[in-house]
């Protein structure tokens, strides 16, 4: 079944309909299926939560009043999970009193339609809300394709609204934290630079160190309502000494050891310290440096470090010398 769903997801968007009345499910299922959507159904709250976490639909059409776990509670639980918080929810309700409609929106719904259900109205409302979700998904997919992890953090309460699988691994490795709470250092950094970000001025990046590995965060864009600071898409990229050294080796046509020596020169180390780090004598380090100077066409370690730093920052903008 999962193989079929994965194939379907590549060609159509997935809608989860949640309603305990079979006739309502049937009418909507047929209309959405004819419109090219892949349709999943659930007849109760527990089943809805399970399906949503497994299939990660593009949108949920949710009946407000159901026995057991009602739609309001389902919505709250979906929004409380970093896995499903990004999914738009449209409530379907026969309750038209203002207090019920407000409750639907406060539970996490982006919109509502009233019963009896009119499929054309549902399709129109879905189109409005799926456009934003589609753009956000395309952005995340593009970032992931180039090796960047991403998260969405709500500035007001520091809640981690969404994260890629790679982001989940990195946050656990560097901070030992899991959703729904974002790392305190990340939340503090976000709040400190909100004014700059809102004025479209890119703030300084946040860097976390883990041995020879570094994790860099940068604010990418605001993705939600600006109230209380809004939701922000944060892009993460991990770098390591080994990656930078390899890039220098390829860029300047250096041997691996020459690139390693040049890297530590950039870091401000003297020959004796570099020898201790790479396991060579200071005299051997000096010989490596002489060959580096010749290949770079410079005469001093300051000039070599400056040229290397310029190239590193072109290849790895988040590198801190």
From TrEMBL:
Keywords on record: DNA-binding, Phosphoprotein, Transcription, Transcription regulation, Two-component regulatory system
Cellular component aspect of the GO annotation:
cytosol; protein-DNA complex
Q: Which CDD domains match?
A: LuxR_C_like (cd06170), REC_PA4781-like (cd19920)
Q: Where is the HTH luxR-type domain?
A: 247-312
Annotated Pfam families: GerE, Response_reg
Stated name of the protein? Response regulator transcription factor
Q: Which GO terms describe its biological process?
A: regulation of DNA-templated transcription
Q: Which InterPro entries match?
A: CheY-like_superfamily, Sig_transdc_resp-reg_C-effctor, Sig_transdc_resp-reg_receiver, Tscrpt_reg_LuxR_C, WalR-like, WH-like_DNA-bd_sf
Claim: Ribosomal protein is one of the keywords in the record? no
Q: Which SUPFAM superfamilies match?
A: C-terminal effector domain of the bipartite response regulators, CheY-like
Where are residues bearing 4-aspartylphosphate located in the sequence?
A: 63
Query: Does the keyword section mention Transcription regulation?
Result: yes
Molecular functions per Gene Ontology: phosphorelay response regulator activity; transcription cis-regulatory region binding
Domain annotation Response regulatory: ranges: 14-130
Query: Which Gene3D superfamilies does the protein's record reference?
Result: 3.40.50.2300, Winged helix-like DNA-binding domain superfamily/Winged helix DNA-binding domain (1.10.10.10)
